[in-house]
Amino acid sequence: MSASGAFPAAAGTSSSKAGAPAPAASGQSVNKRLQSELMSLMMGGDAGISAFPDGDNIFQWTGTITGGAGTVYEGLTFKLSLKFPTGYPYEAPAVTFNPPSCFHPNVDQYGNICLDILKEKWSAVYNVRTILLSIQSLLGDPNLDSPLNGHAASLWPNQADFKKALLKHKSSLPSGERRP
Amino acid sequence: MSEAGSSDGYDEMSCSQEDTSDPEEEIFDSEPIRQQTQTFTVLDASECLALAQKEVDEVRELLCCSEEVASILMRQFRWNREKLTEEYLCDADKVLKRAGIHQGENLEIVHADGAVAVGGTSQPRGSLPDVQCLICYETSADYSALGCGHQFCNTCYTTFLAHKITDEGYNCVFATCPKPECSLVVSERLVHSLALPADKRAIFDKARRIERSYVDDNPNLKWCTAAGCGNAIRAPKGHLGVKCSCGQRFCFKCNDEDHAPCSCEELAKWMVKCRDDSETYNWLMSNTKACPKCATSIEKNGGCNHMTCKNSSCKFEFCWVCLGPWRIHRAGSYYSCNRYDPEKEKENPEAKKKDSSRAALERYLHYYTRFTNHHNSLKFEVEARAKMEEKIKEMEKQGDKTWIDCTYLKDANEALYECRYALQYTYVYAFYLPQGGNFRTHFEMNQTELEQQTEQLSEMLEKDVSEIHRAEVVHCFTMAKTRLTNLLELVAVRGSGSATDTSGGAGSSSDP
Ligand SMILES: [Zn+2]
Ligand SMILES: [Zn+2]
Ligand SMILES: [Zn+2]
Ligand SMILES: [Zn+2]
Ligand SMILES: [Zn+2]
Ligand SMILES: [Zn+2]
Ligand SMILES: [Zn+2]
Ligand SMILES: [Zn+2]
Ligand SMILES: [Zn+2]
Ligand SMILES: [Zn+2]
Ligand SMILES: [Zn+2]
Ligand SMILES: [Zn+2]
Q1: ipTM of the complex as predicted
Q2: CB of B380 within 8 A of CB of B302?
Q3: Structural domain total, chain B
């Protein structure tokens, strides 16, 4: 829907209004927020999650999550790619398993994740930490109603079979999950 | 009348279909042209507002709530009053919460006129304690909150709203507090207190207008697609061609331009196809072609397809569409440049050499050239209308005719436009029509008749004022309209499935 065409261009705003945005500085504010997230992630020390920018590009990160204790994913680590749009945090980052090594009912063969907070339920209050924690919790608690991987969803009720398929899937990927 | 053909809005014909009687006599016995009962109506903005207001008022009384709450609830329930009242009577709190209406203590923080209102009580600006914003992680005393009390700095709140408005259009009225799980809908007061660009605020205000959402959510109503018109059309769901009082024609189903007699799906397929092949056929869009005999450059400046070379030593008469001699188009009294005849193509020794993909391309080209030709002619027809106004004034000056007497020329131009408009889409329809069969024969016969009549009318209206005869023109455009109605009704009958001689539906022919 395009509604903007019918209206006159933005006029000067009254001084009694609050919070004039600085469009030129928006890239700067995204940068600032991501830097601040990076700091708190490094200080926070959450178990089983970590993330760091790829090289000099602050808009592209690699995250790592380890399966939670007591789940079939326990002890397994997975890498994720996080790409931040210029509209971040008002727009969600694109998060995928990369390499696509995660055998899970809500993850497709390309590593795309079906998780509401990354889509329609995204909030500017969420951040890299909450995303990684949500994905970590999704691993052990999948949504079986609308799976992206039907095979994984059908195996899920039998955890022993699921574990076998999960390990087979993970080892079949050439890049594996060995830490550098 | 039958509905599917969407011939509604076209005048019913009173003229006999026989084209033999003397036009000068016939004008006196022909009935006045009647307006057909339309299956769609045009509503102006105030009528839309009145309809929406009536719904809101009823809900307000029924639920004993404020007008604002009634508006929000109706918007949220997509104007389904029954569903709203049923759920409201069952669990009012749940409905109010889901609709994002604040209940309980008011913790709102908004800025206005140099002061800040906290829960409705005004304080001097800058009197708030510092808090850390959950979005930018900065600490400041300059923040806002909805009734829920979830605070965000004004810069972040403004950017948040700007994104909602830009990214979600009119759905920005459903924007909720940025805090996850908080369902409180963003209030107009908050939006107006923040320094949003004026264009963004205008979109939000428009989005909030009850008639806007009333029309957008009602399957039987649609805004006119003309920029800045503001009228709405009421029609049955699935209805195709409608015409607004501003003159805009569009398809009620797909919002694209009116495309009778072809279906929305056929139009969409056709548009994709034309985009893909457009590079190759760009030359067809041009208004200039070389005379097939002497190569003098000929510019098409009228809607008529009958061209005469301007080179005085040539004066070759030809058809603009196929560049063939005009006289062969008149053979058997039919203007016949509409039929794609594969047999005729085969006789052409050149065609024999061509492979099947080339043949498919040529088949497409045949329909495309005719579609484009009528499409381009429409532009000239619009210009012709302006000229016609001048002509009418000219005739008035001559003294022997009054304005009322001359309005038939306007009717004639309107008819010409309608016929040409439909003709372009008859070629899209024909392209997707299965080869062979009685229906195709019938259709092409009707198409030829309409095309011939349209060209005749176009030619007649190109004449000098002194050469225009009222009776001739009235006869000609009445005939053209009859033929248009016939064609659209033929298509409607096929569409409704009652035609027995149709084998296979539209679009079942192999797409080249
Ligand atoms: Zn999904
Ligand atoms: Zn007649
Ligand atoms: Zn902030
Ligand atoms: Zn955005
Ligand atoms: Zn809230
Ligand atoms: Zn306003
Ligand atoms: Zn209109
Ligand atoms: Zn349509
Ligand atoms: Zn010539
Ligand atoms: Zn002509
Ligand atoms: Zn022709
Ligand atoms: Zn021809």
Answers
A1: 0.80
A2: yes
A3: 4
